[in-house]
Write a structure and sequence with these properties.
Elements (H helix, E strand, L loop, with lengths): L28 H24 L40 E7 L6 E5 L2 E5 L6 E5 L7 E4 L4 E6 L2 E6 L4 H6 L2 E5 L6 E5 L6 E4 L5 E4 L10 E5 L2
Antiparallel strand pairs: 1-4, 1-12, 2-3, 4-5, 6-7, 8-9, 10-11
């Protein structure tokens, strides 16, 4: 029976797809396969071309070479620091006493008096001052002490007297250069141990020439 609500000539095929007059209900399978194969081929060629050119027109070309590394600059070696030992400082112990700047000349003993000489140095043991323990007294290996007598320096055996102890005590003060010193008499504080022209040693008042009253020490043997 024909439905009067629907126009004549319309055919409802499987799946409800309207097919117009003169057009087949479905395309032949061979035509669909051919079209699909063509699309796949076009996509394949396009992908191959895209992959060959690096995948994207916007992708920057690889750098021709790696950026140079900054050279490593080695700091210049520090200037050599002087390794000369610091001058010895007068303290308790065994010493050779020399005029400042004359390390080959030393205090020595000649006929019981003190003199400066390049031979026969006397090793002196510095101990706490007999009359003042903030100062020094100087003793030889045979237990004689350096003391002044009539202003001249000599070596005498110890005496149990205040005069001897004061005569044998000398108080150090700074010299003109590092490591040098001057020796002041304990009981004549305005007098310094002084080297005279004949290399003998006295306690004298300063004359303005400190060089002859400035001394240094080296470790004794």
């Amino acid at each position: 029976m024909t439905d009067p609500a629907r126009p004549g000539g319309t055919v409802y095929g499987r799946g409800g797809v309207d097919v117009s007059d003169g057009v087949p209900a479905r395309l032949p399978r061979t035509l669909i396969a051919a079209v699909s194969a063509g699309v796949v081929a076009v996509l394949g060629v396009g992908y191959l071309a895209w992959n060959t050119t690096g995948g994207s027109a916007d992708k920057p070309a690889a750098a021709a070479a790696t950026a140079p590394t900054s050279p490593v600059v080695t700091a210049p070696a520090a200037s050599a620091v002087s390794t000369a030992p610091a001058p010895a400082q007068l303290a308790a112990g065994s010493w050779l006493l020399s005029p400042a700047g004359e390390p080959e000349t030393h205090l020595s003993v000649r006929d019981d008096v003190a003199t400066m000489s390049p031979i026969d140095p006397a090793t002196l043991t510095a101990v706490a001052g007999l009359a003042d323990d903030t100062c020094f007294s100087f003793r030889t290996g045979d237990d004689r002490y350096l003391r002044h007598f009539d202003y001249r320096l000599r070596f005498d055996a110890s005496e149990d007297s205040d005069l001897f102890r004061a005569d044998a005590t000398f108080c150090p003060g700074p010299g003109a250069d590092a490591g040098t010193f001057r020796l002041r008499s304990k009981n004549y504080p305005e007098h310094l141990v002084h080297r005279r022209d004949d290399d003998s040693l006295y306690i004298d008042k300063p004359s303005g020439d400190d060089a002859e009253s400035t001394f240094a020490v080296q470790p004794g043997t």
